[in-house]
């Protein structure tokens, strides 16, 4: 008996009904359905599940435990916030895509078997790509195709891994993969998950595509894809040590590239990669505290990163500009946006009383408790970088700094409301961490607000601020783009086109010339020869065969008497011959 | 109130006050770090008062200069029309 409705089903139903409605009815439904999904998640308890037997495979369409519930909670909250933020848009397609996207994200976190996961995974890629295409300019369409191409490739890896895994183990149920095994199936699935988690070198799709998405679409994108990847990593690869190195590298990689970045949402994209690095490293550590840290940091991250993307989106919507070199001085007319953005910035930077403080520090403490000093120190370096960019560089050059002369108004009220709700969560989680800790997969024995921890964090952060103030002029954004691993397929594609246009075309033309000249003459001679062979030899044979058959036919015709008894005698004789001959042989012919 | 707060961080005429405020906050943090109880430390450096301040400062400087060095000398930063 199901006491609750699968939130993925609710969102899917919503996606079907949305296009039938117009105006305020559509807007209302776009917020109402996510609220219903939130209520449905609130009614779930760990342990509920639903099985379907389909085509010889046991499909577990939904299976709720503490881990899936904590992700479902934040997905539902973000679904409500994101749709409030998108209240003003008139593009039905974007609303439907966002609904499908959220639905598939729910599908992933409740999937109990690999096939259900795969279907949700693919829908997620397609629905999210629409939010990029919806920008409807050449750059966005190109980036959308690259995004789709990378994710479809990842989906193929996942599919291959699932089939191999199923054949090897005989089970399609999701659960921790044996990481001692390290076989092909294990690696294929891991690579596809790392691709969605944006682990370098498989990360360039994120910073390539997210800044091209629509203002409201980017908010959804920032929340779901990478965090469902973190979820499946926690679920299937806890303690896979290879992830620790990748996670730490990611955290620092995002920070380095953020220094170089000029596009405001691309900078935030690099900090998604950086923050997901903490979670990936925590999954690699695999201790209860680390996994709790990964889950809680994903929860906090979705809300503060959503808030940051909403803030940057508000600026883009109101100014039409996205490069830091073209922005500045907006604080005069957008003070509320500045304040709300800064709450997200303080949360991601892990200031005490903000959400990042209670989740990020759990991961760093888990690293220290697991005797990984280098990991703990490098993640602290990345924390400094996080505050430097999202908390200082971005707001400085976007809202303060050199006056760009624009005097944009505050964004529409629905956007401010959505940002306000996210801001309440960022502070609420920071002030009442127990509310979040109670939802985590393992019991929590961690108290973030010790005196030493507070002064330690403030020391790192405020002296980062001092360095920022002293070396500000070295941070000035430059009118450049940064090459990332997408170079391989962006330049690779032009190389492919060059090969197609140059060597292949030349070879093809050479072949044509050859065919028209010497080749054609040779062919003519050959065909004349074969005509002669045809007439003299083949036709003669055919005619001969036909003539013989005709003669034989007239002989046979004379045998046909038309009397049934004659035929019967011949048939019986034939039967006797047919049966008798082998019998004669078998009995030992003399 | 919000506008006032934001203006304090934006207006050039408050630059001196902002600088003094920052200095005061930094001093308070370092002094507080000497007096907080350190019951649960994992590593020796965590017992040194003010280590995190130095670590944060050095980290930030390192990030700025190493990143810019990699960006400029490593050929990562290119003209905006690089892919066009």
How big a fraction of the residues of chain A is strand?
under 5%
> What's the total helix number of chain B?
3
Strand arrangement, major sheet of chain A: 1-2
User: What is the mean predicted local confidence, pLDDT of chain A?
Assistant: 91
Q: Given the helix and strand composition of chain B, which structural class is it?
A: mainly alpha
Envelope shape of chain B? flat
- The end-to-end distance of chain A, rounded to whole angstroms, is 81 Å
Mean pLDDT of chain B: 91
Q: Could you estimate the helical fraction of the residues of chain A in percent? A: over 70%
How would you sum up this structure, described in words?
The complex is a heterodimer of chains A (590) and B (84). Chain A is mainly α and 590 residues long. Chain A folds into 4 domains: 1-237, no CATH class; 238-481, no CATH class; 489-559, no CATH class; 564-590. Chain A contains 20 helices and 3 strands. Chain A has a two-stranded antiparallel sheet with strand order 1-2. In chain A, strand 1 and strand 2 form a beta hairpin. The longest helix of chain A is centred in the C-terminal third of the chain and has 74 residues, at 486-559. Chain A is elongated and about 115 Å long. The model of chain A has no long low-confidence stretch (mean pLDDT 91). Chain B is mostly helical and 84 residues long. Chain B has one domain (2-73). Chain B has helices at residues 2-10, 15-35, 51-73; one strand at 77-79. Chain B is flat and about 60 Å long. Classes of the chains: A mainly alpha (590), B mainly alpha (84). Chains A and B meet through helix 10, helix 13, helix 15, helix 18 and strand 3 of A and helix 1, helix 2, helix 3 and strand 1 of B. Strand 3 of chain A pairs antiparallel with strand 1 of chain B.
List keywords for this structure.
heterodimer; A: 590 residues; mainly alpha; two-stranded antiparallel sheet; 3 strands; B: 84 residues; 3 helices; 4% strand; flat; transmembrane helix (chain B); transmembrane (chain B); membrane (chain B)
């Amino acid at each position: 008996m199901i006491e609750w409705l699968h939130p993925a089903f609710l969102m899917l139903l919503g996606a079907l009904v949305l296009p039938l409605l117009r105006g305020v009815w559509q807007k209302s439904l776009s917020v109402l359905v996510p609220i219903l999904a939130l209520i449905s998640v609130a009614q779930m308890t760990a342990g509920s599940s639903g099985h379907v037997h389909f085509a010889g495979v046991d499909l577990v369409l939904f299976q709720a435990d503490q881990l899936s519930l904590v992700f479902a909670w934040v997905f539902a909250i973000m679904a409500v916030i994101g749709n409030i933020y998108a209240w003003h848009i008139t593009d039905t397609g974007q609303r439907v895509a966002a609904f499908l996207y959220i639905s598939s994200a729910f599908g992933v976190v409740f999937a109990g078997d690999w096939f259900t996961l795969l279907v949700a995974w693919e829908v997620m890629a397609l629905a999210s790509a629409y939010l990029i295409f919806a920008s409807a300019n050449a750059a966005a369409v190109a980036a959308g195709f690259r995004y789709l191409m990378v994710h479809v490739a990842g989906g193929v890896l996942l599919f291959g891994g699932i089939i191999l895994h199923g054949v090897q183990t005989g089970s399609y149920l999701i659960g921790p993969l044996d990481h001692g095994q390290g076989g092909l199936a294990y690696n294929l699935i891991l690579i596809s998950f790392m691709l969605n988690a944006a682990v370098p070198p498989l990360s360039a799709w994120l910073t390539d595509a997210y800044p091209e998405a629509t203002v409201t679409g980017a908010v959804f994108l920032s929340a779901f894809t990478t965090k469902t990847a973190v979820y499946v990593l926690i679920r299937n690869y806890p303690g896979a040590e290879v992830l620790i190195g990748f996670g730490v590298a990611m955290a620092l990689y995002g920070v380095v590239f953020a220094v170089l970045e000029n596009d405001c949402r691309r900078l935030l994209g690099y900090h998604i990669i950086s923050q997901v690095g903490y979670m990936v490293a925590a999954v690699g550590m695999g201790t209860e505290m680390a996994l709790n840290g990964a889950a809680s940091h994903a929860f906090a991250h979705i809300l503060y990163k959503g808030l940051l993307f909403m803030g940057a989106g508000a600026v883009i919507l109101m100014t039409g500009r996205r490069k830091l070199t073209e922005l500045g001085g907006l604080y005069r007319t957008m003070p509320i946006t500045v304040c709300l953005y800064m709450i997200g910035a303080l949360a991601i930077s892990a200031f005490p009383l903000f959400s990042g403080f209670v989740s990020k520090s759990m991961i760093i403490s888990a690293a220290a408790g697991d005797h990984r000093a280098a990991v703990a120190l490098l993640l602290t370096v990345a924390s400094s970088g996080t505050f430097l960019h999202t908390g200082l560089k971005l707001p400085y050059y976007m809202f303060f700094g050199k006056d760009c002369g624009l005097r944009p108004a505050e964004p529409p009220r629905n956007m401010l409301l959505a940002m306000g709700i996210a801001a309440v969560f960022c502070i609420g989680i920071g002030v009442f961490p127990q509310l979040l800790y109670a939802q985590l997969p393992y019991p929590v024995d961690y108290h973030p607000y010790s005196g030493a921890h507070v002064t330690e964090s403030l020391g790192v952060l405020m002296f980062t601020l001092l360095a920022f103030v002293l070396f500000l002029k070295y941070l000035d954004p430059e009118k450049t783009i940064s090459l990332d691993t997408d170079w391989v397929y962006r330049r690779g594609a032009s190389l492919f086109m060059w090969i197609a246009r140059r060597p292949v075309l030349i070879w093809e033309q050479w072949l044509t010339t050859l065919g028209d000249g010497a080749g054609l003459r040779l062919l003519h001679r050959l065909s004349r020869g074969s005509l002669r062979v045809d007439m003299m030899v083949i036709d003669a044979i055919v005619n001969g065969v036909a003539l013989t058959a005709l003669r034989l036919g007239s002989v046979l015709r004379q045998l046909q008497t038309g009397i049934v008894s004659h035929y019967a005698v011949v048939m019986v004789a034939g039967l006797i011959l047919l049966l008798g001959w082998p019998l004669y042989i078998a009995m030992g012919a003399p | 109130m919000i506008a006032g707060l934001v203006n304090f961080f934006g207006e050039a005429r408050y630059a001196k006050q902002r600088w003094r405020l920052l200095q005061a906050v930094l001093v308070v943090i370092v002094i507080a770090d000497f007096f907080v109880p350190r019951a649960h430390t994992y590593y020796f450096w965590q017992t040194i008062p003010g280590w995190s301040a130095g670590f944060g400062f050095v980290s930030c400087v390192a990030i700025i200069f190493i990143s810019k060095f990699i960006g400029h000398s490593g050929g990562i930063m290119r003209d905006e029309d690089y892919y066009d």
